[in-house]
């Protein structure tokens, strides 16, 4: 075990965990931020996506020792009132079905739009390839991203 | 008249003696210096005899490693990396991107952290995980031994490396990563040190390309 000071959703947190602990389990077990979900555990499904200095990182495959002073943002910290343009568009298009993958979908979509505020359909498809949805809400996800892009 | 002719002859003889004496002194000094102060001289590179047959034999070993999934998967014939011992197209279809580091939300480093996490099929870690850049793809997949050897030694196709730089490339952390990915991944057919020895032997003996 070792002490790590990490920056999560605008706050500094200290955690005492093994160096190879995935960020996901630090968020869920140590900090009780339960919005980030566990899916595959091998970075294949995108459910656990968070932002690390703005990049859409798979938290299940990223060890706490590799975080350093990079800033972590989870779904809880994406906006104060749940009113990020992507979150609003998600509501407008009624995107979720079961909802389990949606935090990861929203975190990836918001990272995409922060880097590319006006993506083409092809760019959206390529950027979202790493996020699976077992309910197959992909069509609504794509529509919501296009809507959110207008508010970015 | 006879006197002046004789004095001219004497002067000529004297000059010849002086020149001969100078040459002898220079010769003696140079011989002495050569024996006693060799560090003052430029050391000529050792002339080694190159063994083309040894080079060919070594490349056969090198080729077996470079075409193994642990190496070839990141040198695909396309813009999506390969994955697994069967070299299938990488799940999630990450794109190469201009610099080989991926694109927007699908950068290599978004899943491949500087170090991996424990587990059988977790993404291997490396601080510089990437494919070759899009302007020099350095494709291994599908290359014959001859094609790959010629590609490896061509600076226009190998990342602008001369033979010495190519030799040093064996020390690259991503090259070494082929043996340290962990999990249940199959290892290349040679150990890392066996590969490095074969790589050096191939290059040091002329980096000869096989006939086919």
TrEMBL record, chain A:
A Pfam family matched in the record: Fer2
Q: Which InterPro entries match?
A: 2Fe-2S-bd, 2Fe-2S-bd_dom_sf, 2Fe-2S_ferredoxin-like_sf, 2Fe-2S_ferredoxin-type, 2Fe2S_fd_BS, Beta-grasp_dom_sf, Diverse_Oxidoreductases
Provide a Gene Ontology MF annotation, just one.
Answer: 2 iron, 2 sulfur cluster binding
Ranges for domain 2Fe-2S ferredoxin-type come to: 2-78
SUPFAM superfamilies reported for this sequence = 2Fe-2S ferredoxin-like, CO dehydrogenase ISP C-domain like
Keyword set for this entry? Answer: 2Fe-2S, Iron, Iron-sulfur, Metal-binding, Oxidoreductase
Family matches, as PROSITE patterns:
2FE2S_FER_1, 2FE2S_FER_2
The record, for PANTHER family, names: BLR6218 PROTEIN, OXIDOREDUCTASE WITH IRON-SULFUR SUBUNIT
Name of protein:
(2Fe-2S)-binding protein
Source species of the chain: Neotamlana nanhaiensis
From TrEMBL, chain B:
This chain belongs to the protein called Cytochrome c domain-containing protein
Check the record and name the InterPro entries matching this protein.
Answer: Multihaem_cyt_sf
Answer whether the UniProt record assigns the keyword Transmembrane to this protein. Answer: yes
UniProt keyword annotations, A-Z:
Membrane, Transmembrane, Transmembrane helix
Transmembrane parts of this sequence = 14-31
